[in-house]
Amino acid sequence: MKYSQIVLWLSVIAVSNFACRQETAIKPVSKSASPEWAKNANIYEVNIRQHTPEGTFKAFQEGHLKRLNDMGVDILWLMPIFPISETKRKGTLGSYYAVSDFRTTNPEFGTMDDFKSLLKEAHSYNMKIILDWVPNHTGWDHVWIKAHPDYFTQVADTITDPLNPETGESWGWTDVADLNYDNPKMRAEMISDLLFWVNEIGVDGYRMDVAHGVPLDFWQQAIPQLRAANPDIFMLAEAEIPEQVNSDSLFAMCYGWSLHHTLNRVAQGKDSLVSIDNWWKEKSSKYSKNAYLMHFITNHDENSWAGTELERMGDAVDAMTVFTFTFDGMPLIYSGQEEPLTRRLAFFEKDSIEWKNYAKQELLSTLLKLKHRNKALWNGSAGGEPQRITTDIDKAVYAFLREKDGNRILVILNLSATTQNPTLQCKNCAGNYKDVITGKAQKVTNDYQMELKAWSYKVLEI
Predict the structure, then answer these.
(1) Peptide bond into 340 cis (omega under 30)
(2) Is the pLDDT of residue 28 over 60?
(3) What is the CATH classification number for the domain harbouring 405?
């Protein structure tokens, strides 16, 4: 990547997590880049290395695939499954994102046949598998390094890791070499490798790492070719740029980093509930209704570098889980979240998840199946737009209603550390509901009052 491109990249980078946002409103399009099958889908991030003691495709397939299908998981996003460079490797095992070859699997995870077996069984359950792709950089052992040094950014004729153009100093990603998108041959080779996994192996899409660091015109070049190979392909951008998802020819979904950080601050008492309304207003003004945002309380970056959801959200974890599963957007579950995972996983070492109680699995499964059956919670324009419901204590209670084709979901969350007794002020809320969590019938009137313990919630369905 040339310095001019890096400067452009930095102009839209957000400080936290290198999330990126477009600051000017972009006119949404009327079509959707998302396939029909994703309209009520969810996504589960699989950390193959840590998911089982063996850390292999086979162990994950035999020990967890059916369980996740039974839970209601639709899309499996596999963190990079490619060989990891040894040169300049960090830690013992290195980063998944320091790839040495885009056309084969990491032998520590298993063979290509092992991966194909996993893919075949996932497809038999109508589950999809998308690969975590690393288009911004490669490891220092990548097959292109010696054969095509011109594929990489060079300073004084020397390939460099990604640098801060303002200071000339490394971002700290010293285990990877920065790719040069000024080189059309590199672009063509990258697209060829992407098409290999779609055409020859049959994967269902990609999560694009550091998508905000790659020029937009590359996505405009590459994604239509991928979609021509598989019209139902699903594309996820690690970015928060409306321009990448407001087009029917580019990404179906991007990250909801800004909501994630807002929920963290609310859980920590650093932001009021008004910040959620402000986020929704901003999101609605910038994104097409067909664009999906991925919402989460944890993922691999958050867990390893920012802390577990329990560290960041404390007693608010379940309430924030309910919010991310029922508000506008596609919910993400990360490996171990259903246990729950109570420690930060080492990123460069073997650090297996200890599966014992699956204490959060029932809640997660309940919410996943609710999203499947209730059109109000479907993704993008297939679902109902959230309507903020007023209560007499909006400083502590956040309530909203979603409706679509006779389906209705009413969510009331106590986002405070004390018991609250809110009264809904809603003329459209009255009806005979079912409490999704308890299974009990619940009649709601226009002035419905309830007691909510600290950080508790109600999810009511018609």
Answers:
(1) yes
(2) no
(3) 2.60.40.1180
Residue partners of 288: CB distance under 8 A and separation at least 6: 28, 29, 30, 242, 245, 246
Burial profile 74-87: b = 16 or more Cβ within 10 angstroms, e = fewer? bbbbbbbbbbbbee
Residue 24 banded pLDDT, cuts 50, 70, 90: very low
Two tokens at 216? 């937009």
pTM of the model: 0.93
3-state SS, residue 57: helix
Q: Which residues of 378-407 are buried (b: 16+ CB within 10 A; e: fewer)?
A: bbbbbbbebeebebeebebbbbbbbbbeeb
Closest residue by Cα to residue 253 from 411, 75, 17:
75
> What is the model's pLDDT at position 101?
98
Distance between CA atoms of 454 and 386, rounded to whole angstroms?
23
Cβ count within 10 A of residue 311: 14
pLDDT of the residue at 165: 66
Residues 89 and 180 grouped into a single domain: yes
Predicted confidence at residue 31, as pLDDT, reads 59
- Percentage of the chain lying above the pLDDT 70 cut: 93
CATH number, domain with residue 9: 3.20.20.80
